Amino acid sequence: MFETVLLPIDLSVPGSWQKALPAALRLCQAEAGGVLHVLTVVPDFGMSVVGSYFEAGFEKKAMHKVGEELGAWVAANVPDGIEVHPHVMHGRVYEQIITAADRLGVDAIVMASHRPELTDYLLGPNAARVVRHASQSVFVVRGE
Ligand code: ADP
């Protein structure tokens, strides 16, 4: 039913994947030929004036470094035998998650609801927007 699964993660927030990864693995392992796509987004600055303080080529370097970090994360956390594809994108987080889900043709998106320490609301801004706008099934994994 959910053969291809997209797991968007924030590499700097372990709570964005500690519970969501096992859920995503279960979903795609339930199908023969299940595939896991892991995506991390390098957020843009939103305002060009902010970006202008960084040296030229900064974004390219950042994407490269994040790609290496994501590769190391996959090696450390995704069990052998799973077909897994890492992706690094740049832009607004929720827009990139939705774009990636459409482009990759995934059946489902699995994501954590919000940062564990931010308990005053139940759905973070990116999770809320993905739930609202994605055309795929979205599994929101709650923390404690
Ligand atoms: P919070 O602001 O509490 O972190 P979010 O809605 O931003 O709430 O985070 C919920 C989920 O959104 C994360 O668990 C992750 O799946 C996704 N997400 C957040 N930031 C990124 C990012 N930079 N790249 C990919 N996914 C992200």
Walk me through this protein's architecture.
- By secondary structure, this protein is α/β, with parallel strands linked by helices.
- The chain has a single domain (4-142), classed as Rossmann fold.
- It contains five helices and five strands.
- It has a five-stranded parallel β-sheet with strand order 3-2-1-4-5, with helices on both faces.
- Helix 4 packs parallel to helix 5.
- The chain is globular.
- The mean pLDDT is 90.
- Bound molecules: adenosine-5'-diphosphate.
- Adenosine-5'-diphosphate (ADP) binds at residues 8-10, 13, 16, 39-41, 43, 93, 111-112, 114-115, 118, 124-127.
- Adenosine-5'-diphosphate (ADP) is lined by residues 8-10, 13, 16, 39-41, 43, 93, 111-112, 114-115, 118, 124-127.
Mean pLDDT: 90
Largest sheet: 5 strands, parallel
Strand content: 15-25%
* Overall number of domains: 1
SSE-based structural type:
alpha/beta
Low-confidence stretches: none
Radius of gyration: 15 Å
Going by CATH, what is the homologous superfamily? HUPs
The distinct bound ligands, ions and cofactors come out as: adenosine-5'-diphosphate
* Overall CATH class: Alpha Beta
Q: What's the shape?
A: globular
What percent of residues adopt helix (DSSP H or I)? 25-40%
Key terms for this structure?
Rossmann fold, alpha/beta, 5 helices, binds adenosine-5'-diphosphate, 144 residues, 5 strands, 23% strand, five-stranded parallel β-sheet
List the helices and strands and how they pair.
Elements: E1 4-8, H1 20-29, E2 35-43, H2 48-51, H3 58-77, E3 83-91, H4 93-104, E4 108-112, H5 125-133, E5 137-141
Parallel strand pairs: 1-2, 1-4, 2-3, 4-5
Helix pairs in contact: 4-5
The structure holds adenosine-5'-diphosphate (ADP).
